[in-house]
Amino acid sequence: MTASVTFLYILVGGATIAAALIPVILLTLWVNDLRHGRLW
Amino acid sequence: MNNVNDAILAPTTGWLILALFSLLWVVLGWWFGRRNQDLEGYMLAGRKVGMALGTATAMATWVTSNTTMAAPQLALQMGIWGMIGYSLGSVGLLLFAPLARRIRQLMPGGFTSGDFIRLRYGKTAWRVFLGISLFYALGWLISMGMAGGVLIHALTGIDYQLGMSVIVLICVLYTLLGGLRAVIGTDFIQTLIILVGIVVLAWLAIDKIGFESMHTALQAERPELLNLLMPAAIMFLFNNLLFGVGEIFHSNVWWSRAFAFREGVGFKAYLVAGLFWAPVPIVAGFIALSVPALNLNIPAADMVGPMVAAELLGTGGAILVFIVVFAALASSLDSLLAATSDLILTDIYKGHLKPDANPEQLAKAARWVIIGLGIATWLVCLPRLTTLAALLHFTGAFVASTIWPIATGLFWRRANAGGATLAMLLGTAAGLTAYFQIGFYVAALVSAAISMSIVLIASWSRPANFDWHTLNTENPTTHAGSHTYD
User: Fold this and answer.
1) Which of B89, B152, B262, B448 lies 20 to 30 Å (CA to CA) from residue B321?
2) pLDDT tens readout for residues B264-317
3) How many angstroms separate the Cα of B76 from the Cα of each of A6, B72, B288, B428?
4) What DSSP designation does B8 have?
5) Rounded to 5 degrees, what are φ and ψ at B153?
6) Which residue of B has its CA nearest to A17?
7) Which residues of chain A lie closer than 8 angstroms to B45, CB-CB?
8) Whole-angstrom Cα distance, residue B319 to residue B199?
9) How many Å lie between the alpha carbon of B257 and the closest alpha carbon of chain A?
10) ipTM summary value
């Protein structure tokens, strides 16, 4: 695997994993706001 | 060339998805908006928006159909730097975080970005700013409407004019019904849809093609896309960064959220939204790099995203892209409609046409402004004038000129009105010259550089001594006639 492929792998793979985690974090924040009456 | 026509949805399927999601957004818009009791509730969601909804709305609004459609286009034109450059648009959200906190502190009863410029720099700067801001807002609205029509036509064969009309109509309808609460509430759900959609698409592209074969095909057919020293792409990277900062710093879309967020939320929400946004253009854009491996012939650059998805995933891919871009489109279009109508209502109608308007008249006018803005957008979108990215970057020259007047105006007492006005005018002129003489990728760069020089020289040579209390005024929409605009 060349350095260029590795770079592509890390950039796109990392971004995809990060993007996959965001909905989970947002829903956690939503539940937290709802429980403390701070949604709106 | 592979035949993608088999994967494109039948018009009936397109209409069905369109009808289902349109119904969902309109019902949710009405449901979220039923809590609105006064104009402040309608326009600023009662100024108590929490962290979860705040982060999602900042993120969703910045994930436009241009992110999901122009990111693949830019990846195809500028390669890896195109993706990274687009991703640097997140810097605007990150840098706006301290500004959002400052705005809430200085203007707890503030309403629009125009309010700030008027109170901080006076009438001349205010009018120049309104010209820039409204031109940009209309440009953004048009690019959203056009993107909607293009996408629906590309994926379902539904006529461009019809598809665009439906999208504009639906967004106008639910923004009208629920105001900013409808916008923020639907943004949360739209964010989840967009993220899940692009992650599934990227994951399947990686799984079906793989990095190795994608890289080999790129190296053979489009080696420049892997070149990390591609000069135009590096210029684009910095230009896009400044463009994003200019868009966010000046636009009432972001200011109205700074006013609407609960105290203490603005800084954190914008910071987290910026971090969350950064991977989105990379994930959405990278599928374009699979074009050489798939041996696809792309007839128009802005169609690359939907075509790759349809080729990779067949009908399911086409449906997924359709839903994702519809969500991205709606999340930005509704925000822009709400924030621009606030600006027109407060700064044009109340500020220039009817200074004595009472809250009832303003509440009525707010709805008419949204309808008028929707009709204006629809009319300009009817002919498909230019490619999406070209339209988007044309406004870069305008918005980048506002970065320094706004940032220094919020934090420096010495920033003065003459410098701010001149910086916006000459920055825009220089940016436009660069756009036509050199290219779209330097317009914001030149505009911001000229604007910065003028603001710094003016603040140094003729420093003002601004009193911050001037900004803390009563809400102009609830106290009829209590304001003068001098």
Assistant:
1) B89
2) 999 999 999 999 999 998 988 888 888 888 887 777 666 777 778 778 777 788
3) 20, 6, 6, 29
4) S
5) -65, -45
6) B199
7) 40
8) 15
9) 12
10) 0.93
